[in-house]
Automatic annotation (TrEMBL):
UniProt cross-references to PROSITE patterns, sorted A to Z: G_HFLX
A GO molecular function held by the record: ribosome binding
GO cellular component, one term: cytoplasm
Subcellular location(s) per record: Cytoplasm
A Pfam family: MMR_HSR1
Taxonomic source organism: Halobellus salinus
Coiled-coil region list: 107-177
Quaternary organization: Monomer. Associates with the 50S ribosomal subunit.
Protein task: GTPase that associates with the 50S ribosomal subunit and may have a role during protein synthesis or ribosome biogenesis.
HAMAP family associated with the record: GTPase_HflX
Residues that, per the record, bind Mg(2+): 204, 239
Annotated GTP binding sites: 197-204, 258-261, 324-327, 352-354
Gene symbol of the encoding locus: hflX
Protein name in the entry: GTPase HflX
Amino acid sequence: MSDGTPVVVAKRVDSGEDADLSEISDLARAAGYDVVATRSQSRTEDAAYHFGEGKAAELARAVAETGAAAVVVDNRLGPYQTYNIGGKLPTGVEVIDRFTLILEIFGQRANARKAQLQVELAELRYELPRAEAKASLAKRDERPGFMGLGEYDESRERDIKAQISRIQQELDDIADKEESRRERRRESGFDLVALAGYTNAGKSTLMRRLADDLDVGENEGLHPDLDPTAESEDRLFTTLGTTTRRADTGTRDVLLTDTVGFVSDLPHWLVESFESTLDSVYRADLVLLVVDASESVEAMRDKLVTCHDTLYERNEAPIVTVLNKIDRVDGPELERKRAALDALAPNPVAVSGLTGESVGELTDRIEAELPAWREERLLLPLADGAMSLVSWLYDHGNVEREEYTGEEVVVEFSARPAIVEQARSKAAEVRAPAGETESAD
Ligand SMILES: Nc1nc2c(ncn2[C@@H]2O[C@H](COP(=O)(O)OP(=O)(O)OP(=O)(O)O)[C@@H](O)[C@H]2O)c(=O)[nH]1
Ligand SMILES: [Mg+2]
C-alpha cells in the first residue's frame, strides 16, 4: 500500500541542538515509505501548529519540492494540530503521527487473528478522542470530513465504544485460553522463558541460537502451536506475533517465546492493546531482556528505561539482562558500558546471538535463575503402571537415578514442586490401584 510512497519526516524537540530523526526515519521505512526529506525544529510546542507556524509553512514547501504524499511527525499531535498542519499542506497530503505510523506497521504485519484484533483495538482507541474532537469542530464550524474521517455522524462515538468493548471481550477470551495453555505447559514440565527488549535488539536471532534443532515434526506433535521460524531483519518490528520453540539448557526443558519489541513514547492505550501478546512476557518464569550493546551508552540507557517502564507494572518474573551483539564491541568498551549501566542492568550476561559467542554462559544463567526444582525419591513395586510412571518422570522432570532391585524400582528425580506432588499421588496409585485396595469392603 505505502510501498515507496515519498514522505517528509519531521520532529520537534523542546530545546537543544538537532532532533534525532533516525528512529522515526527507520519506522517510516519499516512501514514501506521512502523518506525524501527531513525537517526538525528546536522550540517549545505551539498550541495551534505544534511546530512554529513558519516551520509548518516550510514543511509545506518541502512537500511541494519533493512531491511527498505525507508528512510523518515524530511528536504526539493533538487532533487540532493535525488538522491545522494539514491545512497548510497541498490538498490530499496526509499528516501521520508516530502512533498512526506504528499502527500502520502493525497493521501490515498482523497475520494472526489476535494481532489483527489488537491493531483494530488500538486504531479505535486512537480514533475515539478524534471523533469527539471532530464532533465539537463540526458543531462549531460545520466543517464536515474533518481529517478525512468522513462525514460527521452522531452515532460514530457510540459505534466506536461498542466495537472497543466487543474486541476487548474477544481478546480477553483469547488471553484466558493462552493462560490455560501456559498452565498446561508448566504441568508438562516446561519452564517458560520469554525474550523481551527494544525492537531490533536481536531477540529473534538469539531465539534461533538458543532453540534446539528438534525437527519440526517432533515439535508439532508435542505442541501444535509451536512455530519453527522466527524472522530476523535489520528493520524495526520484524516480529509482531509470538513464536515459541523448545530450547535445551541442560537439565531443564525450556519453552522459549519471542515476541514484539518495545519502542519508546507509546501511549498507555497502545501498550494496553497489546496486553495479551505481552502476557507471554509478563507471565513467563524468566524474562531475558535483550539489549543491543553495539549502541551508545545513552541509547542503551534510554531503551532499557523504556523496557523497564513497559515491564514495570505487570511483569511477575525475574529478569536477566542480556547484552547482545558483543561481536561488534571490544572488551574495554563492553566493560565501560557494563559499568555505566550497572544500576539498570545488574549482573548482565554478554553474548552474540549472531556468532554464538558466550551463549553457553547464558544457558547456565537461565538454569540458575529458573525457579528451583525439588528433589524426590520414590520406591515403587514392579507392578502395572510403574514403568509408565518412570517414563512420565522422564518427560516431566529430570531423572537422576533409576535402580531395579528384584521386585522394586527406585527413582530419584527433580522436578517443579507441582510435578513432585503429582508424582507422589501417581506412586500411591501404583502401590494401591483404585478398586483393588484390601480395605475396600
Ligand atoms: N552483529 C550482530 N548483529 C546482530 C546480532 N544479533 C542480531 N543482529 C542483527 O540485528 C538485526 C535485528 O535482529 P533481530 O533478531 O531481527 O531483532 P529483534 O529484536 O527480533 O527485532 P524485532 O523483531 O524487529 O523487534 C538483524 O540485522 C540481525 O542480524 C549480534 O549478536 N551481532
Ligand atoms: Mg524479532
